[in-house]
């Protein structure tokens, strides 16, 4: 009877652990501000998501002075959710984004950003390992975001 109880406990533990298993990030493809496609892959280490103009300004403040390719060299991917942006504003804003020295992936219909359950008030920082989210942070302060980006170095 004791063995049966131990066996059942082990089976239950394995089953419970399976329910809490880390789920890999679903791969997606978005166009950047220059209409070049990017597909998320396992090399990405950080996913930055901005769901509002205020959050996008935080990202810009954090990387605007950096050299071209700064985010890419750190294996960081920046997604701007522009679904809620009025069409008239998009007509002006998207071409203006082309002057940025960093890649901005445009989530025009919000389908990618919605997967990560963030908010519109902060920049969501998702640390990825082998295509799986292992940590989440939120930033509402541009200086702190800039410091975090600067301190992030690829292994």
Strand content: 15-25%
Span between termini: 50 Å
* Unreliably modeled segments: 1-21
Strand order of the largest sheet: 2-1-5-4-3-6-7
Total strand segments: 7
Approximate helicity band = 25-40%
Alpha-beta content class: alpha/beta
Query: What is the succession of H and E elements?
Result: HEEEHHEHEEEH
Number of helices: 5
Mean pLDDT: 85
The main sheet comes to: 7 strands, mixed
Shape label? globular
Gyration radius, rounded: 19 Å
Walk me through this protein's architecture.
With 155 residues, the protein is α/β, with parallel strands linked by helices. 35% of the residues lie in helices and 23% in strands. The protein is built from five helices and seven strands. It has helices at residues 2-19, 53-63, 70-73, 87-97, 142-151; strands at 29-32, 37-39, 46-50, 76-81, 105-107, 123-129, 132-139. Strands 2-1-5-4-3-6-7 form a seven-stranded mixed β-sheet. Helix 2 packs across helix 5. The longest helix has 18 residues, at 2-19. The termini are far apart.
Essential attributes:
globular, disordered N terminus, 5 helices, 155 residues
Topology of helices and strands:
Elements: H1 2-19, E1 29-32, E2 37-39, E3 46-50, H2 53-63, H3 70-73, E4 76-81, H4 87-97, E5 105-107, E6 123-129, E7 132-139, H5 142-151
Parallel strand pairs: 3-4, 4-5
Antiparallel strand pairs: 1-2, 1-5, 3-6, 6-7
Q: Outline of this structure?
A:
With 155 residues, the chain is α/β, with parallel strands linked by helices.
């Amino acid at each position: 009877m004791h063995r049966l109880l131990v066996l059942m406990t082990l089976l239950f533990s394995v089953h419970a652990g399976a329910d809490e298993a880390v789920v890999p990030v679903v791969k997606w493809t978005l166009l950047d501000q220059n209409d070049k496609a990017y597909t998320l892959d396992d090399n990405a280490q950080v996913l930055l998501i901005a769901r509002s103009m205020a959050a996008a300004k935080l990202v810009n403040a954090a990387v605007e002075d950096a050299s071209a390719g700064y985010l890419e060299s750190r294996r960081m991917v920046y997604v701007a959710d522009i679904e809620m942006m009025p069409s008239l504003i998009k007509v002006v804003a998207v071409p203006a984004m082309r002057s940025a020295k960093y890649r901005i992936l445009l989530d025009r219909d919000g389908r990618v950003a919605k997967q990560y359950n963030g908010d519109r008030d902060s920049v969501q920082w998702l640390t990825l390992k082998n295509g799986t989210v292992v940590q989440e942070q939120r930033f509402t302060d541009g200086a702190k975001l800039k410091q975090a980006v600067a301190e992030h170095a690829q292994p």
